[in-house]
Amino acid sequence: MSEQVDNLQSNRPVVVGIPDALRDLLHQREAVCAELEQLPSKVVEDYPAEIGRLTAAFHALPLPPPEYAEILDKRFAEAVQAAETAAAENEAKLKARAAKLEAAAAVTGELDALIAAGDLATLGEAEALERKWNDIVNAVGADAVDAAGFEAKFRPLKEKLDAEAAADREKAEKALKLAEEFTALTAGEDMNLLHDRKTEIEIEYAALGRVPKQAADRYVDALHKAAARLAMHYETLDLARWESYTHKLDLCAELDKLNAVPDSELPKAARALHELREKWKNLGGVPKVKNEEINTRYLEATRALQHRVDEYFAQRRQEQKQAALTKQGLCEQAAKLADSTEWNVTSEAFKTLQAAWKTIPHAGAAEKTLYANFRASADKFFGARSAYFDERNRKFDAIAEKKRALIAEAETLAEQSGEQAVRRAKQLRAEYQSAGAAGRAEPELAAKFNAAMDKFFSGCREAFAGRENRSRELIAELEQLGTAISEPGAAEKRYHEIQRELRELACRRTFDQEKKACARFEQALSGARKRVLVDKLTLAKTVARPLAAAFSALKRGETVDEASLAVEHLDRFGKLNSAAQLLKSAIAGDAKALERLEKQAAAAEADQNRICSELEKLVGVKQEPEEAAPALDLAAELQAAIAGNFAKSSARAVEKVVDPKQLLSEYLNTGLVDAETLERSFERFDNAYGKLR
After folding, report:
1. Which residues, at least 6 apart from 501, have a Cβ–Cβ distance to it below 8 Å?
2. Domain that holds residue 89
3. How many angstroms separate the CA atoms of 99 and 8, rounded?
4. Distance of CA 310 to CAs 281, 299, 303, 306, Å?
5. pTM confidence score
6. What's the pLDDT tens digit per position in 165-202?
7. Most CB contacts within 10 A, which of 67, 81, 200, 608?
8. Does residue 365 lie in a domain region?
């Protein structure tokens, strides 16, 4: 058995110890198996037939013993299977070779067709054909096909196509560059450059001729995008022109509105015109069909408005110049008032000036300086006024504090009694009255003080009775004093003494009688003064006539006796007395004295005429029409304001209330005039004054 195993492992059984015939049989069978095993490595034209021959030869041999037959049969079966596999592979190779040879013929045919195609042949087709041919040659060998013939035909075609491909690549590069330029221009903002360059690029591309498809496609795509961008641009531009036209119509409508504004709004319109012009500049063009229409409308509207604006500002400059002159006058008036201490009157005057300032138009470039000057004068006055009133208020506060102390002491008197307390109460009243007014706090303080006094004196009935009796005595004396006043001055002095004592007594029960008695006395005193003034008028006539006669004679060049100037009571009339002294100097030959005398006479005549006119107007005497007074200038207005007449207009003053006694007093002190003027004046004055009696 060990021998059989060795034979199986080596597939070459070694027959040991067996008969020669069996050994030969085994060797024969083994030889057939060996030949069959070598068959796959041999080149055999007909593998199936050879396999069949060897199989028949193996089966034709006698069968060996079973122990050997199994091994050899197995070996034979494996060899047959390997040979059949090799036969199948060989068959496949033969078929593949035959296919390659057929393919070689087909490739040769394709080459002929490609050559026949001429310009239609492409390098890609040639390269694909070359790859096919190389695969066939590699598979069957160059000897199996006509490689030289194929190469002789293929090489010229390939070289031609390579040259054409190089040319196509160059064209493709140029086409791609043109496409890239299109792309860059399309992405840019300069559509004019794109428009101009587009035509040039198209010419350059056309000059290239046939361009490879890929490059041509990219170029065409870039061209289409550029054309679309230009179309969009022109469409947008056209829309923009119509939009610009619409905006310009709106601007023209605004110009029409500005042309309709009143003159007072022209400064604002001028600024708006400037803004509209800037907007117009920033707008683009309009469609050609609307260009002339919109531009003509715009030019006409702007010229009309500009003309109005120019005229307005020319007139405004003139008004500002006049306003500057007027405000300069107000500044001068304000400067004169700045140092005034007539606080109330000057305050009203400044208010009048300020109101006048507000009515004057703006003074242009001079406005700031003028207003600063005007304001400086006002600030100076009102600053001084504030300082004055601050000081006055401090005084009022001090007085109020003092009176509060007196009130506090007066309130403690209610707990005291006796003559000493009464004397102290009177002292407190005297101190209270002598302390002065306490401003706005005075009514409240007076009420508290009187309440304290009343509380104190309510317990002093006897003292009150004495005060009442004394008050009635003083009232009776006042009534008697007013019945016959021969000396108004002395009577008035006594009247004030009685008033002071009555205030000290402060008797409430006799207060109404006191008021009535005072009113009756003041009326009687006024009548007495009037009588004295009338008597003084008579005396004035007596004094003035000799002096007037001497003055008239001196004016005529006549000789005047100085003794005629010795008039009685001359010293009671200041201006007449002064004129008499000048007359003496003029009689002595002093020309300057005569000149001064004539000036005084002219002033006196003017005063007399004024007084007579006012008196005649007061009593309703018809006056001769006078020439229209010239319009008051601003300085006169300010003087009138200071005098108290704040409602004076630029043409005439509001009349003040006239006191006949004041007019009479002024008339007595008018001074010297010539005799004829004096008599005429006396006649007018007597005629008017007589109507008041």
Report:
1. 470, 474
2. 2-112
3. 43
4. 22, 16, 10, 6
5. 0.31
6. 788 788 888 888 888 988 998 888 887 887 888 888 88
7. 608
8. no
CB within 8 A of 517, min separation 6: which ones? 475, 478, 479, 482
Which of 85, 112, 139 is the C-terminal boundary of a domain?
Answer: 112
Cβ(613)–Cβ(688) under 8 Å? no
Q: Tell me the residue type at 111.
A: L
DSSP string across 610-622: HHHHHHHHHHT--
How far, in whole angstroms, is CA 533 from its chain's centroid? 72
Q: Cα(83)–Cα(46) distance, rounded to whole angstroms?
A: 12
Section 344-357 average pLDDT: 91
Q: Which of 523, 547, 564 delimits the end of a domain?
A: 523
- For residues 116 and 514, what is the distance between their CA atoms, to the nearest angstrom? 158
Count the Cβ atoms, other than its own, within 10 Å of residue 547: 24
Residue 46 placed within a domain: yes
Q: Tokens 């702007």, residue? A: 302
Half-sphere exposure at residue 88, Cβ-oriented, CA atoms within 13 angstroms: 5
The answer to the question of residue 569 being in a domain is: no
Let me know: does 398 contact 435? Beta carbons within 8 Å: no
Q: Which residue carries 């002095």 as its tokens? A: 493
Q: How far apart are CA 71 and CA 63, in angstroms?
A: 12
What own/partner pairs with CB < 8 Å and gap ≥ 24 does 190-196 have? 191/229, 191/230, 191/233, 194/226, 194/229, 194/230, 195/230
Q: How confident is the model at residue 624 (pLDDT cuts 50, 70, 90)?
A: low
Q: Is residue 296 part of a domain?
A: no
- The total number of structural domains in the chain stands at 2
Dist CA 57 CA 235 (whole Å): 99
